[in-house]
Write a structure and sequence with these properties.
binds magnesium ion; globular; binds iron/sulfur cluster; 8-stranded mixed sheet; 286 residues; alpha/beta; 2 domains; binds thiamine diphosphate; Rossmann fold; single chain
Amino acid sequence: MGNIRPLAYKAENAQPVWCPGCGDYGALAALYQAMAELELDPSHTVLVSGIGCSGRLPYFVKSFSFHSVHGRALPIAMGIKLANPNLTVIVVGGDGDGIGIGGGHLPHIARRNPNVTYLMLDNSIYGLTKGQSSPTTPLEQITSSTPYGVKEPPLDPVLLTLAHHASFVARGFTAHVAELAEIIRKGIEHKGFSFIHVLSPCPTFNKNVSFEYYKQLLSPIPEGHDPSDREKAILLSLHQGKMYRGIYFQQQRITQEENLRIVRQNKLNKFADDLTFETLMKHTAF
Ligand SMILES: Cc1ncc(C[n+]2csc(CCOP(=O)(O)OP(=O)(O)O)c2C)c(N)n1
Ligand code: SF4
Ligand SMILES: [Mg+2]
């Protein structure tokens, strides 16, 4: 633990507006803790969010932030990182935001591997719009948009991002703040795209997927799991009737920023190699 207190990262003029008991408070506390441990500089940190209750989180953090458009936080974050690779970029959004309306972006950011951390706050419901089903709502659950029950199997964000070559994939639970803080810290430290599936119950509009529900279902990733083995991580995520907390997968590979830097450098080198008086005259406007 560094010298900075977690609450040093609390925005001065904004109080969280979430309902009492909302899981997102735990995610916020864990993020403060991770930022303090890493001693992040708020003037070099950007939080980008989509739309939803979870999308409000950046308001409560001392950093730069961009409360963007529903489902579009990921491409915006990627643009910010490409424009200034020195920034720490963290994305926060909901399950609807990330794999509903914004689902088309997740595969591509995962395979491009920018050094961006993504916290998906999953309550298995559309919270802000008062309780419609989301892509992670369990089968047969009755919601305001599924009066006869959800008829499609839920998506698993961990399995999805593993399939899309994300270089860091983990799951945390907002009832375990210290553990979640450690996962977030490791995700931010990871050089590449880090995806953290944060189970964050909504006690107001999803009475089914509650803290109790997850307590029954969740256990720590089994000791001895090798996080560098993607195939094993996929098998772990497929385990029927069980869900694990912890780091499923981590692999170091070239980031999008590094790839672009190399392409740019190669172009410059080629330009310098080809440089003659004639080519210089061609490229110089008089
Ligand atoms: C383009 C667009 N479509 C729909 C909406 C309405 N809308 C706002 S938030 C939301 C769902 C939010 O659910 P989720 O992403 O899971 O976040 P939560 O509120 O549960 O944290 C919807 C459908 C919108 N703001 N913009
Ligand atoms: S509606 Fe649900 S997700 Fe939104 S603030 Fe309230 S408890 Fe949290
Ligand atoms: Mg949601």
